[in-house]
Write a structure and sequence with these properties.
With 199 residues, the chain is of the alpha/beta class. It folds into two domains: 126 residues, 2-Layer Sandwich (Nucleotidyltransferase, domain 5); 50 residues, no CATH class. Helices cover 41% and strands 18% of the residues. It contains seven helices and five strands. Strands 3-2-1-4-5 form a five-stranded mixed β-sheet, sandwiched between helices. Strand 4, helix 4 and strand 5 form a beta-alpha-beta unit. Helix 5 crosses helix 6. The chain is globular and about 50 Å long. One of its GO terms (molecular function) is exonuclease activity. InterPro entries: RNaseH-like_sf, RNaseH_sf. Keywords: Exonuclease, Hydrolase, Nuclease. This is Exonuclease domain-containing protein.
Length: 199
């Protein structure tokens, strides 16, 4: 089975109010040799106000938003056609299931395209962020990330994924009753006692 590796750059975080602005898709064979690829960029729809933080993160400037070669609809149609033509494949990316797929699904739905295109036609899904967290939790020494002054977003994301995963075993050992014991250090002796009525 082949793989589709993809990533989206969006106008913000909430799928209800934002759209994909850029998309990159690479279709690979079983040995991860590229078979074909797409790199798409679209203009910002008139009804969308981009989040400044998203534009700062993606590096997309106002001029690029207005001068992109495609409309949002044309870009989404091209993505849908590629997903259909490259099926069946394993659709994979970094944090795609929680972010990119939700964004793509909502955009497809609002443009009358098949919203579950990444799951139809024999496609399977995978998320590298989940895999990295699982490996970091089970084998902490298996993943090493070099830290340099010019660390990019990908390495800092991998570092934070590793830190989260390394904290998980400690958090898992805390059972609910131990959490309650920690929250109430007085073990019930601090509770107010009701005054007794005199009869």
């Amino acid at each position: 089975m082949s793989y589709i590796v993809y990533d989206l750059e969006t106008s913000g975080l909430a799928p209800q109010w934002n759209v994909p602005l850029q998309a990159a898709l690479i279709h690979c064979d079983d040995n991860l040799q590229p078979l074909s690829e797409l790199s798409l960029r679209c203009r910002l729809p008139a009804h969308i106000v981009p989040a400044p933080g998203a534009l700062f993160t993606t590096g997309i400037g106002p001029a690029q938003l207005e001068q992109a070669p495609m409309s949002s609809t044309e870009m989404l149609i091209a993505i849908a056609k590629a997903l259909s033509a490259w099926a069946p494949s394993t659709v994979i990316g970094y944090n795609t299931i929680r972010f990119d797929e939700e964004m793509l699904r909502h955009a497809f739905f609002t443009h009358l395209l098949p919203p579950y295109a990444t799951q139809l036609g024999g496609h399977r899904r995978a998320d590298l962020l989940t895999m990295v967290r699982a490996v970091a939790m089970l084998e902490p020494q298996a993943i090493t990330v070099p830290i340099t002054r010019s660390a990019n977003r990908a390495s800092s994301s991998a570092i934070s994924a590793g830190r989260t995963a390394s904290r998980w075993p400690r958090m898992r050992r805390m059972t609910p009753w131990r959490i309650r014991e920690r929250r109430s250090p007085c073990s019930g002796t601090c509770a107010r006692s009701r005054p007794q009525r005199s009869r």
